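TICKET: design request
STATUS: open
ATTACHED STRUCTURE:
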């Protein structure tokens, strides 16, 4: 099954989710989302006012309970974990970044 994905250059559903989550975060960081999402993701230095090694990483929100939904699967948590593990990329073009992420994900098959 992996060969079909590689041959046709199609991402698996899990990787499509990662790609669109990264795209959402990129749009958030470049202020291209509606005002509703302005404070959806928070960077470490927006939460505390001191210099730490996590200043530029996205904050992973803490939940007091998992009652009602699975907190670990929310876009805020998944997005923060994905972007914090990735190397920072200097690309300012969203389309180019999306293409590079797709190539990277396909190379892992």
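STATUS: resolved
RESOLUTION: sequence designed for all positions
ATTACHED SEQUENCE:
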């Amino acid at each position: 099954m992996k060969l079909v994905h590689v041959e046709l250059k199609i991402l698996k559903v899990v990787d499509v989710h990662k790609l669109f989550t990264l795209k959402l975060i990129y749009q958030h960081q470049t202020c291209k989302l509606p005002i509703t999402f302005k404070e959806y993701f928070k960077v470490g230095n927006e939460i505390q006012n001191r210099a730490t090694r996590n200043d530029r990483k996205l904050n992973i929100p803490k939940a007091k309970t998992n009652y009602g939904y699975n907190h670990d699967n929310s876009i805020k948590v998944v997005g923060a974990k994905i972007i914090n593990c990735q190397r920072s990329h200097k690309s300012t073009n969203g389309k180019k970044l999306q293409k590079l992420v797709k190539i990277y994900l396909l190379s892992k098959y």
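CLOSING REMARK: The radius of gyration is 16 Å. The helical segments are 2-8, 13-29, 44-47, 75-85, 94-107.
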